[in-house]
Amino acid sequence: MAKKLSGGTKRKLSYIISMLGQPKVVLMDEPSTGMDPQSKRFLWDTISSSFSGTERGAILTTHYMEEADALCTRVAIMVNGKLECIGATQHLKNKYSSGYLLEVKLKIEDITDEEQAHRLEELQNYVMSLFPNAVTLEKFGTYAQFKVPKTDVPSLANVFASLEEGKRHHGMEEYSFSQSTLEQVFIEFAKRQLDEHAGDHDEDDKKDNKRISSLII
Q1: In whole angstroms, what is the distance from residue 127 CA to residue 123 CA?
Q2: What is the pTM of this model?
Q3: Overall number of domains in the chain
Q4: Is residue 59 part of a domain?
Q5: Residue of higher predicted confidence among 208 and 178
Q6: Element containing residue 10 per DSSP (H, E)
Q7: 113 with 55, same domain?
Q8: DSSP letters spanning 145-180
Q9: By C-alpha distance, which of 84, 51, 44, 88 is closest to 186?
Q10: Residue 57 is part of which domain span?
Q11: How far is residue 181 from each of residues 20, 85, 132, 146, 184, measured CA to CA in Å?
């Protein structure tokens, strides 16, 4: 019977079997891989309720940072087999995140595409006046997304006051200002590792071009 089940249902069945006998510690490897969003959320809620308020624990490995954020009280991030950090998810975000993510949306009005593009440009200029070192990640239609470094955010209260000002006077319909996700923290570590390897490769390249070529392959 189990052979005929879908991949997501097999994952749920595997978790149920792992909990038989009330084990003290459960080892899980990407328990929600291959599931649709609704099934993932259901399994995450089930796993969380199984361990909440008990003396049982679980060790979980995953490449899916949203899964780690949803299930884990402490997270360890490894890059290329090297342990980079360990701690509570919020602690890691506070310590290692490079900044914030700002998403803004223009008010939808009966105007030409050219006028809409001009208004979005004006809104972008307003955002850049608030955060001089921000980087535009996306911009299309009535939507724009920015990466804002921590150095541009001395006070969250001032940030939200300025964004509310943007809603009143700069055609902004809505905005979202959020801390970097665990996924972005992981990406920052991965980028750092790549930069280190690039530096190592450059140094080795001076010594032995043939050797470095084989390493890149």
Answers
A1: 6
A2: 0.61
A3: 2
A4: yes
A5: 178
A6: helix 7-18
A7: no
A8: EEEEEGGG-S-HHHHHHHHHHHHHHS-EEEEEEEEP
A9: 84
A10: 2-72
A11: 34, 15, 22, 14, 5
